[in-house]
Amino acid sequence: MAIKISRIGFKFALLLGGAAVVPLLVYGLISILSLQRGTGESIVIGNKNVATRAAEEIRRYVATNAALLKALAAELQDTRLQSWQQQQILRNYLLAFREFREITLFDESGQPLVSSRVGPPQVRVPAEAPLPIDGVSMSPIRIDQDLLPTTVFAIRLTRLNQPAGWLISEFSLEEMWRMVDRIRLGEHGFALVVAPDGALIAHGDPDKKALVARSRNMQDHPLVQLLQSASGDTPVNRVYQDDGGRGQLGVATRIPALGWTVIVEQPTEEAYASAAQLQRQLVGAISLALLAMIAVGYFFGRRFLTPIHELQRGTHAIAAGDLTTRVDIRTGDEFADLGNAFNLMADRLVELQENVKRQERQAMFGRLAAGLVHDLSHPIQNLGNSTRLLVRDDIDEESRLAIRATIERELETLKRFMDDLRHVAKPRPVERFALDINGSVAEVVEAMRAEGERVGVTLDARYADQPLIIDGDRFALGRVYRNLITNAIQATDQGGRVEVVTKRSGDAVEINVSDTGIGIAPERLAAIFEDFVTTKRHGLGLGLAISKRIVEQLGGTITVESEVGRGTAFTVRFPAPDDRSEHAAAS
Q1: In this structure, are strands 458-462 and 497-505 parallel, antiparallel, or unpaired?
Q2: Reported pTM
Q3: Is 98 in contact with 216 (CB distance < 8 Å)?
């Protein structure tokens, strides 16, 4: 019998080994190929990110300084300053921004008016329009006598839409060189910048900076040629050999606003060093795993397979939803403990499933009750205030009619709530009719004005001069206005002010509710539209969540801006219909 078992074990080991060798070898080959491809792609992506960030930093650096000169031009062109005042401003700019070497103001004929230089200006009005950057013209880069890169910025001045001269500045790009020098990939990877005409204007490799002084032309560089043939501004990459015959992994990208090309180079042996080492480790690990699998399979294969299959069967049954499934493992080892744990888990899942169902029912009814309490509190409070006013003897007939209208409106609101409650299993969608925002907002403002006076808060409203027609639900929007105005009043101390403004902004209609209250902390702004999130001492935190859902159902948006101690402003935006819809609604 022992011999038979040994033969069966031997055959099982051979079967397991044969079945494991081929998949493991295939897995190893696929893993190695995937590793090569994946690491190669990740390295290229990383280098592309470096090149893209470098290009953006250079663009931002040039654009920022161009914007400074543009700001100076704006300060000079429409003012009635004396020449000595203009000259003082130019010199102050030169002291504040060291990159500007000279700034000179020319008239329309090209004659200098004032300059930051003591002597004659060195810059001239450009004969032709150079490269524009945000309205500022930039000349090609040249290397000055100090072997530093410089360029000339030029701004055309206008007065009353007529040409009024030029503001010309010589600008040093020395800081750009430092930015390029700081870009490093490993120990031997550097960045370089090429001008639109192919001239090398910056190089991060100290040994190749002399090429910049000699204005080395890079038109024959593989990446420059590849980028010229490529469409769009997407970075390109290629593996090539440099002038010394050393393999390089290069990435190039354009700076669209400048026409420059940023190239990042790294020796291939350095770029792929970690990938090669990881590949060797993977080959060794796969080989050891293969040997270990064959050896261990003979001794433990049969013992492992049966319990595993049993657990697999039970797991699939549980995953399919059959929580009554149990496993029967009697090996007397850890697999038996695992089987017992599996059965215990299945029992616990049954209990948890029942608990979750019960909690979901409780949460649903709790949310429903909380929402009703929140929404009913406003109309009931208005009914109470109106009833108290109605029984007073000093109320005239006109006021009684206004109070009666308020009571009828709030009763209609309560009726709608009761309809919503009857349709809680299938909520009624918001209705869409053409309505005037000014009128719907005014109704709520007038109803809430007494509440503001009661707590000493002024409630003001400014409405657009023309009708603001949208497709909306008057009742649903009334809930939104009430929530926003109530929150504003509650957040404002006595003597404060709440303002409601309606206006048309482009192709949209805006309702703005702002207050002079305590404001909302920045870390809490992101969550104020979530259920049960509130910034007040009292309340359930449902008003803003309900308002946001209503606004989005009507195709609008709601945003908030707030500053602690200064107040909060909510802006509701709805798309305005075209002229035909507006005309139909008005008629």
Answers
A1: parallel
A2: 0.45
A3: no
Residue length of the chain: 587
Share of the chain above pLDDT 70, in %: 81
DSSP for 87-153 reads HHHHHHHHHH-TTEEEEEEE-TTS-EEEESSSSS-S----SS--EEETTEEEPPPEE-TTS-EEEEE
Amino acid at 242: D
Is it the case that residue 560 has pLDDT exceeding 90?
Answer: yes
User: Tens digit of pLDDT for each residue in 359-374?
Assistant: 776 766 666 566 566 6
Q: What angle do CA 585, 586, 587 make, to 5 degrees?
A: 95
Question: Do the beta carbons of residue 475 and residue 443 sit within 8 Å?
Answer: no
d(CA 153, CA 131): 9
User: What angle do the packed helices 273-319 and 2-77 form, to 10 degrees?
Assistant: 110
Q: How far apart are CA 584 and CA 136, in angstroms?
A: 49
Task: Determine the pLDDT at residue 484.
Answer: 92
- The bridge status of strand 247-255 relative to strand 200-203 is unpaired
d(CA 570, CA 560): 4
- Of 250-264, 454-468, 521-535, where does mean pLDDT reach its minimum? 521-535
Residue 16: what pLDDT?
A: 59
- Closest alpha carbon to 109 in 166, 27, 60: 166
Question: In order of start, what are the domains of the chain with their CATH numbers?
Answer: 1-308 (3.30.450.20), 326-428 (no CATH), 430-586 (3.30.565.10)
**How far is the C-alpha of 20 from the C-alpha of 37, rounded, in Å?**
25
CA–CA gap between residue 208 and residue 388 (Å, rounded): 89
Q: Does residue 421 have a pLDDT over 60? A: no
Comparing C-alpha atoms, which of 217, 190, 183, 202 is closest to residue 143?
Answer: 202
**Using CA atoms, how far apart are residues 400 and 128, in angstroms rounded to an integer?**
78
Token pair for residue 230? 């490529």
Do 455 and 417 touch, CB atoms closer than 8 A?
Answer: no
pLDDT interval class at 437 (50, 70, 90): very high
Per-residue pLDDT, 502: 95
